[in-house]
Amino acid sequence: MVDVAGLTTPDAPAMRRAMLTTIGIPLAVATSADAIRCDLVRRWRGQGERSQILRFVQPSLIGLIDGTISTLAPIFAAAFLVGSHAALLVGLAASLGAAISMGLSEALSDDGELSGRGNSLVRGALTGMATFVGGTFHALPFLISDTQTALKLAYVVVAIELITIAWVRRRFLQVPLHRSLIQVTMGGFVVAGLGALIGHA
To answer: Which of 2, 72, 111, 119 has its CA 20 to 30 A from that of 45?
Structure first.
């Protein structure tokens, strides 16, 4: 019989680091990633709601909107012109390029001193990551080799992304959900339509 009451349980961060190093991720990388995550959570909890919006929500939302909408045209154009594999590669390239561009733009355009929007590196990182996520999700369906099936799934993913953006705007910016849905959907349709038009040229 084992006395489980006497066993000590390691803290959660240490367990995560042990699991990551077990699967081959270096301890330095795991520790650094954990430290960044903890720092972001600590910063978030230490801010008021207005400061949370200015320093975290807006930079992330800008990236999510740009990544979701700006990559629609090249992805759909490539899908109609060449096929699934090309659309996937174009989507990943566009997402990476947009993430770097948007992250740099956010970080370099405002150091946070005058505006009170916080650390420029944190905002730039949030914008870049959100841009990459927004652009990558609707590229992943093109892992499917059948282009028509991939397109149908991509349409669903884009719809989910647009609804998510609308919900975030409602939750943090108090934009009415129906108005936000109309705005982001119109933007998405225009860009996707341009991609389809060029793809059929």
So the answer is: 111
